[in-house]
Amino acid sequence: MTGGVRGAGVVHATAAGLLAVALAAVALRGIVEPGVALAFTALIALGECVRITLPGDREQAPIGAAGALAYALLGPLRGLPTAHGTVQVVAVTGTGLLLAWLPGLALIRRTSRRPHRRPPWADPARRDSAARRLLGVGFAAAVFQPLYNGALVDRFSPQGPAYGVFLTAVAALAALCDASLAALLRCSATGLCFPAALEDELRSLFGIGSAIVATGMLVSLAAGEVGLWALPLFCTPLLLAQVSFRRAAAVRATTGQTIASLARATEVAGYTPHGHARRVADTACALGRELGLGTPELALLEYAALMHDVGQLSLVEPVPDGATALLPCAEQRRIARLGSEVISRTGVPRQVAEQVARLADPCAGPAGGDGSVALAARIIRVANAHDDLLTAARGRGVGEAVGRLQALEVLRLGRGRVYDARVVDALARVGGQGRG
Q: Which CATH number describes the domain made up of 269-430?
């Protein structure tokens, strides 16, 4: 984790140094085409002020990102060549990011009674996003602007297909650069291995990321014909897409509240120990990350882990300490089936109910059906058994460290027969710390 923090520090320091150099250079030589620079600065700042939260708790500013990419790829404007260059692109993007923090500062001052609110520069996610934006846009500008200003792009017409292919290639490289930086910063924050984090970030490009890249390219192309009117013309659809994402986020929040209520029901009714569902979910997510699950799979895994004991509400007498892992297999399967039936009526994704239904499946041999569902169920089974065994050890007065060793030894005895061997090995690597 120390190496990860150091890696994030390098990214932040590089972005800050690049912005300082760019601002100093622009201050010395002056602003080229100040009206155009001001328009893109305003667009980037506005886009940063209307951010959205994507699945996996990712914050994104689609309009700001598209505006910055469009300025980096801006060639002709109303048929006339531009000459702002790479340094000014970085300066304009950085200025827009800094200006976006001012409304946040004013809002914080007006709501000073809410101590949990922090200024944008104190938010690690906002700092990561700003660093990624500067470095990604700087990379795109460094590829495009020298070729454009050096007249190498003049070999093909800005109205021809070759120019569009060139812009697409540069935009794709910029998107890959941004995804790599996002994966590196995510590894620094969570300890996830870089290949798994990069795969997850590349998957997200097919969502809002592709819309951002497409909008940035369209703005840069359309500006060659209609000038700065291309900014509101092509950014409005992206704004409407943000509204749809916000509605989807509201639906996810409602689902989360439903899941939290069901998870607490077993604790309130006295069927499971306090905090058991949360501990199992944290351990399951840690194991899922160790096994390379992406953000969508981890979200479903967390939901199923939180609700894995709902079936116990059907029991006449609670299981001692809620330790279903110590029950006969037939009883475990019955509880899992009943829990799945309850979950399927709550409106949560069907994969969650399927994962809970398969919690007591035998682990000998290959998984049948949906492999991702089977793996998630096996992860939850190990995480649940681990917490049940730890709870039993505490009841016997065994110390925490000794209890973890004993629990891991019991799980290893059932490795490949009762519990999935890959999951047990992953638990040994993460130490059962339950990192959420």
A: 1.10.3210.10
